[in-house]
Amino acid sequence: MIGDWIKDEVRSLVNEYGTRDPFELCDALGVRVICYPLPGRVAGFSLRYGEEAQIFLNERLEEELEATCAHELGHLRLHPRHNSYFLRECTCCVPGRYEREADLFAALLLLPEEAWPPAGAGSVMWRPGGRHSLPPRLAELLSREAGA
User: Which residues neighbour 94 within 8 Å (Cβ) at sequence distance 6 or greater?
Assistant: First the structure.
């Protein structure tokens, strides 16, 4: 199920800054976005040091650059005190929940609210309609979560 708190965070950002563009939101929030040739299959990551925040994106990304920026912004907004790399590599904690929440944040940010899936959609496979599109993995996650 999509947490109302995630929807509320997306609504709050969109209402305050008047945009759903993750790059524009980063600029307005003072989050520095850096495109860099990251190793392997790393799409991106975010760092916070005190009050400063940065998002690093793999410059080799083509189609999912915006979605990856939105995902990393989700981490910064939803999990400001968590470091998923540290959790994964240095503890027994599995950061899957945080990744799922950041993906939900990204999907909701990239779609206008009227295109969000209805709650309790059941087993019906939801897809964003009209001119709205999401990377398939985000659309599938939204569909699953709406039916949960």
Answer: 87, 88
